[in-house]
C-alpha cells in the first residue's frame, strides 16, 4: 500500500511541474489567445487533471502490484513513465514555449503513448487499462482545443 503513495507522488510531481509552467502563463499569455467556444473555464482544468493524475497513479500501482514488481512490469511501467513525461512536455511546449503548433505535434505523440499505455496496462490488469480511458478521452478533447487555438491564433 505504501507504494501506492509512491506512484501518486510520481504522477503528482509531474502534475505540479506542468501546473507551474501553465500557471505562470495563464494571465500573461494564454488570456490573450483566441479560444474555441468549447473551451472550459480555467478552473475546470486543474480539477479534471487532478482527478486524471489520481487515476494514472492508481493504475500504475495496480500494474506494479499485479505484475509482481518493477522488473516483471517493466515494459508497461516504462510506457507509463514515458507518457507521464510526454504529458508534462505538452505543458512546456504549449505554455512555456508559447507554441500551440508545436504542442499539437507533441500531443499526437502523447496520444500514441497513452494508447500504448492502455494496451500494455490492460494486458497486465484490465482495471488499470480501464482507469486510463478518461485520460485518453480528455486528451482527445485537449487535442481539439490545441488544434483550434493554433488555427485561431496562427
TrEMBL record:
Organism of provenance: Parvibaculum sedimenti
Family matches, as InterPro entries: TspO/MBR-related_sf, TspO_MBR
Bilayer topology term: Multi-pass membrane protein
Family: Belongs to the TspO/BZRP family.
This protein's GO CC annotations: membrane
Region forming the signal peptide: none
Keyword hit for Transmembrane helix: yes
Subcellular localization(s) per the UniProt record: Membrane
Domain of life of the native organism: Bacteria
Keywords per UniProt: Membrane, Transmembrane, Transmembrane helix
GO BP terms: tetrapyrrole metabolic process
Protein's name in the database: Tryptophan-rich sensory protein
Regions crossing the membrane: 43-64, 76-97, 103-122, 129-152
Amino acid at each position: 500500500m505504501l507504494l501506492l503513495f509512491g506512484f501518486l507522488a510520481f504522477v503528482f510531481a509531474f502534475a505540479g511541474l506542468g501546473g507551474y509552467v501553465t500557471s505562470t502563463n495563464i494571465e500573461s499569455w494564454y488570456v490573450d489567445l483566441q479560444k474555441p467556444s468549447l473551451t472550459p473555464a480555467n478552473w475546470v482544468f486543474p480539477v479534471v487533471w487532478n482527478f486524471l493524475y489520481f487515476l494514472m497513479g492508481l493504475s500504475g500501482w495496480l500494474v506494479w502490484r499485479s505484475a509482481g514488481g518493477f522488473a516483471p512490469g517493466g515494459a508497461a511501467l516504462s510506457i507509463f513513465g514515458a507518457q507521464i513525461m510526454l504529458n508534462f512536455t505538452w505543458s512546456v511546449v504549449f505554455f512555456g514555449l508559447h507554441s500551440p503548433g508545436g504542442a499539437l505535434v507533441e500531443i499526437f505523440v502523447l496520444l500514441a503513448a497513452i494508447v500504448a499505455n492502455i494496451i500494455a496496462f490492460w494486458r497486465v490488469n484490465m482495471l488499470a487499462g480501464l482507469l486510463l480511458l478518461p485520460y485518453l478521452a480528455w486528451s482527445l478533447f485537449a487535442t481539439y482545443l490545441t488544434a483550434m487555438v493554433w488555427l485561431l491564433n496562427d
